[in-house]
Amino acid sequence: MIPPIEASPIPTRPRRVLIVHNPTAGRHKRRRLIGVVERLERHGCAVTIQETAKRGDAEDFAARADEALFDAVIAAGGDGTVNEVLNGLALTGGGLALGVIPLGTANVLACEIGLDPRDSEQIAQAIAFGPARRVHLGTANRRRFLLMAGAGLDAEVVAGLNVTLKRHAGKLAYVFEGLKQAVGYDFPLLSIRADGATYEGRMVVACKGRFYGGPFIAAPDANLEAPMLEICILPAAGVAGMLRYGIALPLGKLTELPEVQVIKAKSIVITGPRGAPVQGDGDIVARLPAEIAIADETVDLICPHDSPAPAP
Ligand SMILES: Nc1ncnc2c1ncn2[C@@H]1O[C@H](COP(=O)(O)OP(=O)(O)OP(=O)(O)O)[C@@H](O)[C@H]1O
C-alpha cells in the first residue's frame, strides 16, 4: 500500500484522487472534465471517477472515500458540489484533501483561489502537485459551508431558482429570479446578534471567502484560512435598494456604501420569519432562526501554486 501524503502543504508525488462528478452542474462541461482527467493521468495521478445520480450522492461518496486509496477528493461541479463533498469529508478522519474542477455556473471557489475554469492544465497541475491551504469551515445550523452563508433576498432567490432556466441561461437566471423575487418580496426585518450586540438588516451574508456570486468581491478582508466570519449587513428594503447593491457589488464598492455594515464575529444568530431560507455556498442549507458560526473542523484545500495570498 502506498502511504498517504503527510500533511505537508506540497505533495512529494502526484496525488491519488477520487473525482466526484456532478453531471448536472453547469452547461456542456463534460469535455472540460475529460480534458482535466487526461492531463492528470499524464502527470502521473491515479484517478477514480464517481458520478452522482442525485442530490446527496457527492456527500456520501466523499464520506466513504478510503484514506488508504486516495490523497484527495475532487469536486467536479459547481460550488454546491464542493459543499456536498466538504460536508462528506468532515465525517471522515480528516486525512483527505479537498480539490475542485470548476464546472458550475458561478464557480465562486475558483475565483477565490485563482483557478481558471477554462485552463485544464492549471487545474490539473494544482490537483496533482498544488499546495494545500488549511481552511476553516463555517456552519449554518450545523451544515458546513466553505465560502458564505446568508439570509434575505439572496437566499430567497436561490430557493426560488428554476433549475431548468439555470441550465439554459446560466448566471442570467439569477438576475431574472432576483428581479422577479424583489418585486413581490416584503423584505422582512432580520435581527443579527453577534458578540452581545444586535444589528438589523434586510439581507445578511456571513463570508468566509472574499467573493460573492462570481468574480465579485463582497468581503475584502475575509480569509478562508482564518477562524473568523466577515458579515455584511444590508439594510435597504425594496427594489431600488437591491439594485443599488447589485450595481455596487461588481464595482467592488458594496462595503463602501455608507449604510452597509461590516462586522467580524466567530458566531452570529439570525432571527426573522421562522422557516425563511438560509443559503450556504449557493444552496439552501438551513432555515431561520439560524446560528452561523466557525466550525470545529478545518479542511486542506488544494490550490494552484500561484493562488493569490489571503488578506493578513
Ligand atoms: N446527479 C445529480 N442530479 C441532480 N442534482 C444533483 C446531482 N448531483 C448533484 N446535484 C445537486 O446539484 C446542485 C447544484 O450543483 P452545483 O452547485 O455543483 O452546480 P451549479 O448549480 O451548476 O453550479 P454553481 O453552484 O456554481 O451555480 C447541488 O446542490 C447538488 O446537490
TrEMBL record:
SUPFAM superfamilies the record matches: NAD kinase/diacylglycerol kinase-like
TM ranges: none
Keywords: ATP-binding, Kinase, Lipid biosynthesis, Lipid metabolism, Magnesium, Metal-binding, Nucleotide-binding, Phospholipid biosynthesis, Phospholipid metabolism, Transferase
Keyword Repressor: no
Pfam families: DAGK_cat, YegS_C
Listed SMART domains: DAGKc
Annotated InterPro entries: ATP-NAD_kinase_N (IPR017438), Diacylglycerol/lipid_kinase (IPR005218), Diacylglycerol_kinase_cat_dom (IPR001206), Lipid_Phosphate_FormReg (IPR050187), NAD/diacylglycerol_kinase_sf (IPR016064), YegS/DAGK_C (IPR045540)
GO biological process: phospholipid biosynthetic process
GO cellular component: a single term: plasma membrane
GO MF annotations, alphabetized: ATP binding; kinase activity; metal ion binding
Keyword hit for Transcription: no
Domain DAGKc: from-to ranges: 12-144
Cofactor(s) the record lists: Mg(2+)
Protein name: Lipid kinase, YegS/Rv2252/BmrU family
Species: Magnetospirillum fulvum (Rhodospirillum fulvum)
